[in-house]
């Protein structure tokens, strides 16, 4: 039984990250780094809780950016240079990205040719890489699958020159999403089958993200063995890089919300909340997936108190459509509804659709103290986004 009283002390709505849980994830990722002799870096597209960056840096080998803003955040708050990849680089941003990055991966040979000489103006050295497409992925949701025919992400083997340009030092692929080490093993078979001649010309390779290393059933020993064996097959490779985001933030916090109204439609009881799935939990609708709600369970024939959870935007589908939730007691206005595992791919994807305010953000420190980091989004936040 979950003690819901603890959540009464938090603002609502509020994202709450638990520092102790984050550190446990980082310790496991660091173990993989040390045992497999690889570099694990944090992907900001999944986890950008920048107040925790000092802790992240203490365990991991840096962070990866997909935009100028992410790269700047890494430099300013993690105090290190970014590994950067974006599907297309912009003329007005490329110089700043060169300045903020230690590694810069291009999505196409044409973009590499366009910008390869821009690093010459800097005294610092930027290592160039090329994203490739192994044409294999086990991601079931097309929206997240970068290896579909016609994908805009990565160079195909048939498009590669026989010899890599001398400025290209690494290859990068990203074809996983919440996958285990056995999926990575199969992906590596396709990657090597298509790109082995170019792997042998490189100094580093980047296996992207989607490695669900901190999930309880992940076979960490198999991952370590897999990475060690890859290193043995390619002694020319000086660095193997993995860039998980979700695995960093996995099971590290919650989203606290409140029941504001209860309505009924054709026998369906609907608890209206002060958060929006469309605005605050978009992956629930995009994947889609049904989140875990603390104090709730799956309905069955004996369930007496069953509710659909509705969001506060005017989008008709702003509710969890994969099924309802059963509670041990009837819900009342003012009750807290707490969504588990809400620190990754939530804050980084929130929107101001409908002018719905952002939840507050807080952290429970390792000593148990709650620290409020930001208040709920204001009118000025919404207005400034619009001009």
Question: What does this protein structure show overall?
Answer:
With about 375 residues, this protein is an alpha/beta fold. It folds into two domains: about 5-15 and about 250-385, Lyase, Ornithine Decarboxylase, Chain A, domain 1; about 35-250, TIM Barrel (Alpha-Beta Barrel), CATH 3.20.20. It is about 25% helix and about 20% strand. It is built from eleven helices and 19 strands. The strands form two sheets. Strands 1, 11, 12, 13, 14, 15, 16, 17, 18 and 19 form a ten-stranded mixed β-sheet that branches. A nine-stranded parallel β-sheet has the order 2-10-9-8-7-6-5-4-3. The longest helix is centred in the middle third of the chain and has 19 residues, at about 180-200. The radius of gyration is 22 Å and the shape is globular. It starts with 13 loop residues before the first strand and ends with a helix. The model has no long low-confidence stretch (mean pLDDT about 95).
Compose a concise summary of this entry.
The protein folds into 2 domains: 4-16 and 252-385, Lyase, Ornithine Decarboxylase, Chain A, domain 1; 37-249, Alanine racemase (TIM Barrel, Alpha-Beta Barrel). Strand 9 (204-206), helix 7 (220-233) and strand 10 form a beta-alpha-beta unit. It has helices at residues 19-36, 53-59, 68-78, 94-100, 109-115, 181-199, 220-233, 246-249, 277-280, 282-286, 379-385; strands at 14-18, 39-40, 42-43, 63-65, 82-85, 101-106, 127-131, 168-172, 204-206, 239-242, 253-265, 268-273, 293-294, 296-297, 305-310, 325-327, 336-340, 360-364, 370-374.
